[in-house]
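Q&A log
Question type: sequence-to-structure
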Amino acid sequence: MRNTLKCLGIIACIPVLSCSGGKKQENSQQMVKIGDRTWTVELALTEEEKRKGLQGRSDLPEDRGMLFVYSTPQICRFWMKGCSYPLDIIFIGQDMRIINTREMEVEDGEGDLERYTSELPALYVLEVKGGSVAKAGISAGDIVEFRNIRTSPGK
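Response status: OK
Response body:
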């Protein structure tokens, strides 16, 4: 199955409250850390969330991102359909190391859109605001850390 996805985006994380023993508990924010840089992320777990991604959103704050989670490592392909701001994309392997990164520029949406592909099978893909990767000095081989990341729908 071809994993061509539209431009990915971020929705602010909204705390979910639940009752347990009469007390409210707040879920922790989902975070991705690479080197000294940390992003609060929205997860794209379902096929629908992955297809929609960040498409149609007006901007992405520098401290936010979207993390695409796959059930098995695979070659991932992304495009910039419906995205009005540049993004950086970070392909992450099963070993939690960066496979490769790409800078994705805004396209006019006419004709064939450029595809941004992982060089090896990726288990995770992180999209962040354009210029973030260069600014943070992130490169292939860097270790990625997750905090409060669930890896499949319903878990």
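Response note: Residues 1-26 have pLDDT under 50 and may be disordered.
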